[in-house]
Amino acid sequence: MPHHLYNLVAFLISALVVLCITPLVRKVALKSGRVDLPNARKVHQGPMVRLGGVAIFAGVLFALLSVWALGGFGLQATAKSNEVWGVTIGGLACFLIGLADDLFGLSASVRLLLQAMVAATAWYMGVHIDFLTIPFVGLVHLPDALSLIMTVIWLVGMANAINWIDGLDGLAAGVSGIAAVVMLITSLFMQQPAAALIAAALAGGALGFLRYNFNPAQIFMGDGGAYFIGFTLAGVGVIGLVKSLTTVAVVLPYVILAVPILDMSAVIVARLRRGKSPFVADKRHLHHRLLQAGISHRLTVLYIYVLTLWVGTLALAVSGIPSGLGSAIGATLLLGYTSWQVWKSTRQSQT
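Structure for Glycosyl transferase, as requested:
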């Protein structure tokens, strides 16, 4: 089978499994009373199942196992094999941490400690950031101790960043799906087929989940789904892009995931400036601010999708991918139109 077809197979299997399993997960959770109740900070109005991550994880896992059985990974080098295992096992562990939090509730400190241990293990298995791009200096090699710290911050930070934007119907799933598709394209361009396969399965799972998660949502992905997706996206960014030793490749994951990164960073800074813990939830995220400005739920989500697509196409353009520049121009025009719609909605809500 031509190698590019393995990516399509991974995407389709993951999406189909999620489409089939999600209603079953919802039914079981409703019967067992595993629901998320509304409160002052949350947008949903009634009890909602938040175990959709089980379906997403199952879809991605089944897709990767299927492609592996078909010989799609074809990993010969032990080092590359270890990297792939580091991302997949790390994703599994983060899913379990989130699932435990969804079912039983874990403190923020316990979650962070467990996530840091998982990220450190992934680093030991070869998922590590070895280089940073410093303005006016270029590519700088990191010593092991700094590489470990940067990798743990990146993997744990992204797991939580995706969880933090999971505040509106379909928001985290759509943003993650778009980012995964961009990572699939860039990983293929950087000739990192194993990373591309993981990105393809993740894209299929996240976008398939939108069938039940887009507004009005029937189910949420919960911490299990968000931690799994965030960690896996971050891991693919490391083994698929950062491993390519070019100044541009090293910064690509940060560009592709700029929307959740900047949202998380802005919220943390705002909370610290107010003398509050960065882990105490509030309504200071971008999606909360757009809602408060009078923009509808759906337009808010679609606007953040377009922002994610825009930064993704910028990554395609700067990486030199054919038609990347054309994609970026198209996405810029779409962002301009969507921004005009947002501005118009804001004006209408103020009159």
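The mean pLDDT is 89.
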